[in-house]
Amino acid sequence: MKRYHYFIILFLILIGVSGGFYAGSHYSAGINQELEPVKQQDTAVSQGKENTSLFPPLSSSVEVASKSNLNINTVFGVDILIIDKTIQMLREEYLDEISYVKLINGAVSGIKKRLAQKNLDSSFVIPLKKMPEKEMIVELHKLYNKAMALYGNKISESDLAYGALIGMMESLHDPYSVALEPKEYKLLNEFMSGGNYGGIGIYLEVHKQTKMLTVVDTIIGGPAARAGLKSGDVVVKIDGASVKGMDLEVASQKVRGKKGTRITLLIDRASEGLREYSMIRDIIHENSVISSMKPGRIAYVKVGFFGENTGQEFGEELEKMYAEGAKGLIIDLRNNTGGYISGAIDVCSHLLESGSLVVSVVNPRTGRNEVYRAYGSKQSQIPIAVLVNENSASSSEIAAGALKDTGSAAVIGTKTYGKGVVQSIRELRDGGALKFTIAKYLTPRGIDINKKGITPDYIVEMPPQNVNTKTDVQRDRAIAVLKDKLNKKPEKKTETPAAAPKDIPEPVMIPEPAD
Known about the structure:
- α1 (80-93) runs parallel beside α4 (157-171), α2 (100-117) packs parallel to α3 and α8 (310-323) packs parallel to α9 (341-348).
- By secondary structure, the protein is α+β, with helices and mostly antiparallel strands.
- It has a six-stranded mixed β-sheet with strand order 13-14-15-18-19-22, with helices on both faces. Strands 4, 16, 17, 20 and 21 form a five-stranded antiparallel β-sheet that branches.
- It is 27% helix and 22% strand.
- The longest helix is centred in the first third of the chain and has 19 residues, at 133-151.
- It has helices spanning 80-93, 100-117, 133-151, 157-171, 182-192, 223-227, 248-255, 310-323, 341-348, 395-405, 473-486, and strands spanning 27-28, 45-47, 50-52, 178-180, 195-199, 202-206, 213-218, 234-238, 241-242, 262-269, 273-280, 282-285, 289-294, 298-303, 328-332, 357-363, 368-373, 384-388, 410-413, 421-427, 433-442, 458-459.
- The relative contact order is 0.17.
């Protein structure tokens, strides 16, 4: 879910922004994301000028709507009881109907895997037969307690419980729903706050088609960018160790390290083949928004990920561009895999009239139906173009969809990723967290873009690695479109906007969290 890249990312990238966190997660390699990714992730989403919690006591890009202000575990530690509570929570809040049999046996599978990881005999851990839910939970407790009785001196309760939680999340077959142990959740939070970690400034994802660990983007001025790494590069080895089958979070941790230490990546680049890149880690920090002025007084504002401070950073960069006499505005969401929904709403609130619909968050199974509107007002009437590509996901799609559906901007580039679901992040007492899908979102015209993406008004094909290079034809097209608008020369679009649906969800009152 820049992104969170997952999953970082990710992180969010992250995320896939973010959400972020994408392709399941997106983390910055120094994390890496939707994301996505994805804070609603339970993201408290912005409504008006205030953040409101979408969830009751308990609670990422990714997406992440936002993180809940309430802890899932105010009473229990990370042990067998958290497993029971998570089963109940998922059955009550997950986007789709869940089989308790699959959930419980997912926990059983997770316990077995965790014991195996510790080189402990797990032959007594076998799938449970279908029986009434309470009886299956009793049997799950027996397995857990037996494992602790046998190996309590070799494995902690929380370690075994995380194994069960990971197994349950895997049973959902949902790439955006995961259990994050404390170190992994720390990575996500660091990414969403902009960094300040030791790394090389790189965003990674597990490519959704090839399943290979792939570079999404690099941070300008970071060790990876200086070494020449590019979007689309495939990571084959980290310090001589193969990454085949390696989890994104594990790869992210291996890339990170103390400032001043050396790291070597074996990279497979389509045009060049295998090559080693050796870099010295540095402290990585990145604002989520950067800007510059292009010829013709066209302001260029790149949003790398939707983090905690993105709305404020975006407003500051806009004011700077307006002060320099900007006549047109390009908002670059390419390779942005998402983050917090609240970040997308904050950005749109600088560009849309107050009260304009930004996104609807719905879950027909649970009756969830909330809409979120811009709370600011347009700072300027200059024409806007939004750049997107196949790596634009989660909160990026929320922002692009809102600006497109309201007729506030021309969208240029290639079809977006298509992550139209929202995750909730529920923090655990020991610093870990659960991230799981609780809703889907709709654009202002009621369009569900999940697994479909957003089709730009102007389709301009270009490899993601060409972003912000001399051959960035998407950026050049955006400049041309804005200049045509300024000269009142309308350009033919590739599609006719769909008619607005008759029924668009009305706002619902959401109680604010207690201080």
